[in-house]
Amino acid sequence: MANDSHTIPAAPAAGGAEAEGEARLVSALARGISILNCFSPTVQELSSRELMERTGLAKPTLFRLLDTLCELGMLHYSERLSRYVPGVGLVSLAAPALARMTVRQLARPLMQELADHIEGQVELMVGYGYTVTYVEIAQGVRSHVYRPEVGTRVSMSRTASGRAYLSMMGEAERQAYLAQLRASDPQREAWLQGRLAEAAHDLDEHGFCRGQRDLHREIERSPCRCGPAAMAKRGCSRLRCQCSASRASSCLKTSDHGW
User: Fold this and answer.
1) For the purposes of burial, counting CB atoms within 10 Å of the CB of 182, is it exposed (0-12), middle (13-18) or buried (19 or more)?
2) Taking 60 as the threshold, does the pLDDT of residue 229 lie above it?
3) What is the pTM for the complete model shown?
4) What domains appear along the chain, each with residue ranges and CATH number?
């Protein structure tokens, strides 16, 4: 479940071959993954009724898939809660993807040094399709910033990280995202257009996007920095810093120290 109040589907296949891409999908596998995508660090338990509402799957199909996912350890049915919860099998699935991201190992000591310097938090995220996810987090020794879990998805519209990611997308993909958002929430789409214009100006002028405290106002009390990295066709990585207002100016000067 994405952090945005309106969930945007995955990005369409490249080159406008959306129908062709859908034809190649194995429907049972796609439905099973759609069930797993309903869970997140903030949505840890769901009833069968809630899963039915979120996925739109028919009851017989849903229960067959749930039985399979439970058998494979991807989900677990809690008798105490009368709800489904993520299974430990998901951990082993994520481990190879995280281990293969060598940028995490390379960036970790520098991220920690920067986090200690600004007495804040430095986060590394990766994006794929219309999703941005934390993959590494460094907490400064004196930081009191809320620490999210690795694997938590970031709001695409209400965070500087999400807007930087959207700004680095190809025009066709960005417009497809906005069109879907416009169909579900025209007011939010109009608001986001303005925020994207600000993000584009920040990227051109400074090389990073500043946060506008649109999400978690009690946490993001100061501007955050998002440096755009090389944008791959279907994903990219980026860095974000959060720190107290007294350290914000120091955060913006870190490039002079080689970070």
Assistant:
1) middle
2) no
3) 0.67
4) 14-90 (1.10.10.10), 101-257 (3.30.450.40)
